[in-house]
Write a structure and sequence with these properties.
With 138 residues, the protein is of the alpha/beta class. The protein is built from six helices and five strands, in the order βααβααβααββ. A five-stranded parallel sheet has the order 3-2-1-4-5. α1 crosses α2, α3 packs antiparallel against α4 and α5 crosses α6.
């Protein structure tokens, strides 16, 4: 049976920056060409544009936006249902609005959330997760 995935911003950055776990993301993207459905939240595009723009400039951020649109992923726009669920998630958990939208998107698409964010462990009762290796602090 095909699996569905939602790639968190941290998973996309892992893939783009060849960090530990990038091969897992690469395998998910390759499988998406055959039968898996891979999604990213609209807010992931905003986060990536912001992060890349701040670190590497506006031109590089635009390049990454074009690259993302060439990957076998479906961009999920917000809906009232996703927004309301994200609001409930944010009200009950101490993480960013972006993370709340990404978790809500994974729930909406009944997908495995692929991430590298230790804070997202709190939502494991609501959505299946695939945690990539966390960065060491040091």
């Amino acid at each position: 049976m095909a699996k569905n995935y939602v790639l968190d911003t941290s998973a996309i950055l892992t893939y783009l920056q060849s960090e530990d776990g990038d091969k897992v993301v690469d395998e998910i993207l390759w499988a998406a060409k055959r039968s898996n459905h891979v999604y990213i939240s609209f807010i992931t595009l905003m986060e990536l544009y912001c992060i890349i723009g701040q670190e590497e400039g506006k031109h590089k951020a635009k390049e990454i936006s074009v690259l993302l649109k060439s990957l076998p992923v479906q961009i999920v726009e917000s809906s009232q249902r996703i927004m309301l669920r994200a609001g409930r998630i944010k009200a009950n958990h101490k993480f960013s609005v972006a993370d709340a939208f990404i978790v809500s998107t994974a729930m909406e698409k009944e997908s495995i959330l692929v991430h590298k964010d230790p804070e997202l462990g709190d939502v494991s009762p609501y959505v299946e997760m695939l945690a990539l290796p966390f960065k060491s602090r040091g």
